[in-house]
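Run log // design_07
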């Protein structure tokens, strides 16, 4: 290299999101260049980043073991050959903790394996090095509730003077000790508990506080962020996924509001419903439906969501039926099923849930596939006792949900304050007024229960009843006692 001095940018936190141990060689999001240092007159700048130079993110999360990539980048093209060598360096963390008033504990050096002896090489003329794969093997020895640190120092290969600091701290978290959310009853798969959270008012993290006492399993298997919307932009002529400021705040801060749920085995689902114009779950023509499904996939990819919850409400159906706009048609069961089909075909690895209401009351075969093939779960409305299997051809019984209840409807809880009220009601949740038996749902083979407008705000008078009802549910579905940690998460993004 022709420069007399190489400047290294110090990056205090490297971060990324890796959901599963099998997801190897994911690029670690660590930050871009310090433009002040780039402007230094003495020479080139070498700094550490991910493949696309992003500046911030969450800690690198893995289960048992995981691999991420480090890259070295330069502000000017390399002249000749050059490489950067990374080494485990405990002194780096000592200095970092002192400088930042933190107390991170270092992962042990024998947990860390560097590919290529820790060397990331530049080819002549390159601005970015080859990737350096770093593998961390937690081996189940790390506390999943703690963030650990991997301290690294690095040197330039030609031995020239390093200007500035040459260290980096990678924050790590191993979730392998979390028990997850998959539950059983007498050795068979347990029913799925689905919390639909109205994020205009409530924080989805509150579902984490409910676990089964002996196993530690999460009570809730899924949380639905309720809700994004389907809307039409008459300026662009496009149907699109709209998100109000509350939904967007949660998505933009996925590391705070979404990832902790996923770390514990809870799937995070995006709700999509109509929003007071003619675009709706059941009013798009086939071409418009497919295009909308592509955008839904893009959002699920961008925010690493686990599926989509479809709710056919709040659409101007009459306007859709009367317009000559080729994107819209009269509402139909076929159009609603087609949307689910298109979303499933666009991202078959993700879940598609149906709230069985309006044009989603019946499922219709699409392109030779039965509804049970592209709907993963179909969930009844609150008072609906009809079996979804009867209206969704091909749906298995364990894909059907009944006994749904709404946490904020005080009328459903009126027995709670009636004279002579007794809590000895067997497994009949208060909101059902003896309409549903929890044991009956399980014995009949139902696979899911939806709880709408879920919350556990201690300032709201129904919270005590909600917690009691959840305890009855845990006993009936899993023969387990419920444990509630008492932690309340406010909607602090507002």
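design_07 sequence
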């Amino acid at each position: 290299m022709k420069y007399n001095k190489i400047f290294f940018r110090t990056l205090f936190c490297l971060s990324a999101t890796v959901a599963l141990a099998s997801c190897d060689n994911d690029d670690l999001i660590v930050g871009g260049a310090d433009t002040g240092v780039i402007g230094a007159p003495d020479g080139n700048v070498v700094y550490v980043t991910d493949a696309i130079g992003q500046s911030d993110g969450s800690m690198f999360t893995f289960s048992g073991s995981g691999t991420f990539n480090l890259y070295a980048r330069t502000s000017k093209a390399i002249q000749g050959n050059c490489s950067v060598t990374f080494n485990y360096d405990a002194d780096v963390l000592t200095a970092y903790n002192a400088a930042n008033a933190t107390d991170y504990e270092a992962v042990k050096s024998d947990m860390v394996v560097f590919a290529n002896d820790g060397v990331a090489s530049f080819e002549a003329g390159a601005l970015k090095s080859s990737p350096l794969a770093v593998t961390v093997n937690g081996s189940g020895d790390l506390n999943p509730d703690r963030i650990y640190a991997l301290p690294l120092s690095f040197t330039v290969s030609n031995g020239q003077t390093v200007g500035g600091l040459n260290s980096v701290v990678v924050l790590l978290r191993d979730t392998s000790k979390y028990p997850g959310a998959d539950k059983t009853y007498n050795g068979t798969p347990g029913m799925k508990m689905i919390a639909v959270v109205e994020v205009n008012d409530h924080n989805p993290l509150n579902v984490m506080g409910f676990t089964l006492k002996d196993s530690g399993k999460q009570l809730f298997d899924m949380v639905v962020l309720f809700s994004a919307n389907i809307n039409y932009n008459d300026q662009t002529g496009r149907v699109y996924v709209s998100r109000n400021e509350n939904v967007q705040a949660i998505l933009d801060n996925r590391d705070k509001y979404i990832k902790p749920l996923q770390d514990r085995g809870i799937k995070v689902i995006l709700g999509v419903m109509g929003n007071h114009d003619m675009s709706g779950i059941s009013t798009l023509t086939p071409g418009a439906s497919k295009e909308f499904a592509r955008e839904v996939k893009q959002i699920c990819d961008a925010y690493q969501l686990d599926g989509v919850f479809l709710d056919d409400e709040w659409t101007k159906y009459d306007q859709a039926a009367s317009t000559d706009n080729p994107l819209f048609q009269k509402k139909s069961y076929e159009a609603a099923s087609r949307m689910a089909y298109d979303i499933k075909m666009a991202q078959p690895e993700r879940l598609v849930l149906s709230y069985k209401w309006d044009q989603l009351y019946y499922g219709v075969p699409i392109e030779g596939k039965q509804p049970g093939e592209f709907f993963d779960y179909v969930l009844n409305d609150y008072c609906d006792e009809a079996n979804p299997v009867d209206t969704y051809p091909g749906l298995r019984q364990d894909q059907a949900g009944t006994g749904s209840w709404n946490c904020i409807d005080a009328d459903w809880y009126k027995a709670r304050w009636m004279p002579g009220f007794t809590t000895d009601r067997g497994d009949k949740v208060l909101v059902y007024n003896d309409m549903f038996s929890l044991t009956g749902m399980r014995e009949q083979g139902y696979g899911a229960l939806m709880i709408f407008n879920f919350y556990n705000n201690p300032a709201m008078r129904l919270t005590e009843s909600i917690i009691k009802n959840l305890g009855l549910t845990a006993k009936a579905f899993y023969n387990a006692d419920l444990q509630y940690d008492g932690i309340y998460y406010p909607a602090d993004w507002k």
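The two ends are 51 Å apart (CA to CA).
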